[in-house]
Amino acid sequence: MNEGEGDELSLAGRTVGTDAWQLVVPAAVSQSSPLLVVPTVHPRGDRRIVRCAQVALEAGFRVHFIWLGDGEASNDPAVSETILPSPRNARERIGLVKAVARAARPLPAVLWHIHDYYFLAAARRWQRKSGKAVLYDVHEYYASYYSEKLPIPSVFRRAVAKALEWYQVTMAKKLGGANVVTEKMAESFRAAGVPVSVSPNFPLLAQFRGLPAADFESRRWNVVHIGTLSREYGTELLVRLATRSAERSLPFTFHVIARYPSPDHQADFEQLLAAASSPANVRLVPTRPTHEMPALLSDMGYGLSLLMPDGQNESAVPSKNYEYAMAGLVDVVTDRRAQRAFAESFAVGISGHGGDPDLMLDQMMKLADESTETGSRLKDRAEQAQREFTWELAVQPGLSKMFVRLASHTDG
């Protein structure tokens, strides 16, 4: 056996996993493969970040994550990580950018893949010093989002949003390229000559094959919320739905993933539950990695996506909407323009009715009472979603080319 051959064989076709994520390492990836570093202040195990990392592995890169959370860090030679403590609030999260960048700089990366608007300046400093490219991943409509959060008169928000958009596009052009979640988002980058790949938050088909596995009738009373728990994402409406369901003696049980952006958000949700006398039909479910989510969804009849009016939310289709459709769940959404259009066109959907919980529950009961017909419709929509909204078919080819292209780029 030649020197290094054992290492090559030991990395062949393996699954690498932790309590927060799971990835498949192709046979061709070895300790001599180029290193992609993912420095981010997103939480450990973020679904989009993990999916992008799988593409990088398939393209022949090793991956090292630097992100925020807890648990035992992977030291696998193909997929390793550095874990920094979770922040208590948004200010602490932004403050951790320096620590993440400091941990990333010594690593022998051929490319950085960043996932935060406020990481742009740190990435630019590394890019100028190293001469290596950076891929900027744009998860959300950041310009709209941040302009809405600033304490400024509404008349100035449009101008501020344009300035924020100009900044991120200009920085992406200097860094190397952008990977965005929608075609609409790509427009400003393309207009400035920035290389762009478009990667919607589609699920991995490999994780959803065989769903829906159970008849709708057997799961029609189970409701699930798998998204982040914050008021922006509808915690008040979630509690009102559960409370009114209990008051009306409806048989629904609300399974809620205990996923909080910070301890402050957790305390706020717990206060909402306490103020509603802690409805007995709410069951908090421990967080779980992405690859375990389909098993949870297989027992559910309805999935909640309760975006509130908040800047970019009119244009966003959260990844859970795709997952609900692919798993054969009824997609219960609020009246935000983009997610409502998705639910109406590609899922069996219930819209928000202006946030009236009783009207939403009435529609849920109607579909439950018509369980045979509802199940047939859900199966058809799941088959359509598994054809059209898969990460492997719609995202992986373009993103893989982007990784290879930028990794070959050096300044000077």
List the defining traits of the structure above.
single chain; 412 residues; alpha/beta; seven-stranded parallel beta sheet; six-stranded parallel beta sheet; 19 helices; 15 strands; globular
Cα-atom Rg, whole angstroms? 22 Å
What is the strand content?
Answer: 15-25%
Low-confidence stretches: 1-12
Average pLDDT confidence is 92
Strand order of the largest sheet: 5-4-3-6-7-8-9
The coarse overall form would be globular
**Counted beta strands:** 15
- In whole angstroms, how far apart are the ends? 40 Å
The percentage helix is: 40-55%
The structure class reads alpha/beta
The major β-sheet equals: 7 strands, parallel
Count the helices. How many? 19
Task: Give a verbal description of the structure.
- The chain has 412 residues and is of the alpha/beta class.
- Helix content is 45%, strand content 17%.
- The chain has helices at residues 5-10, 47-58, 90-95, 97-104, 120-130, 142-149, 157-175, 183-191, 205-208, 216-219, 235-247, 263-275, 293-297, 319-327, 337-346, 357-369, 371-388, 391-394, 396-407; strands spanning 14-17, 22-25, 35-43, 62-68, 79-84, 111-114, 133-138, 176-180, 196-198, 222-225, 253-257, 282-285, 302-305, 330-333, 349-350.
- The strands form 3 sheets. Strands 5-4-3-6-7-8-9 form a 7-stranded parallel β-sheet, with helices on both faces.
- β10 (222-225), α11 and β11 form a beta-alpha-beta unit.
- α5 runs parallel beside α7.
- It is globular.
- The two termini are 40 Å apart.
- Residues 1-12 have low confidence and may be disordered.
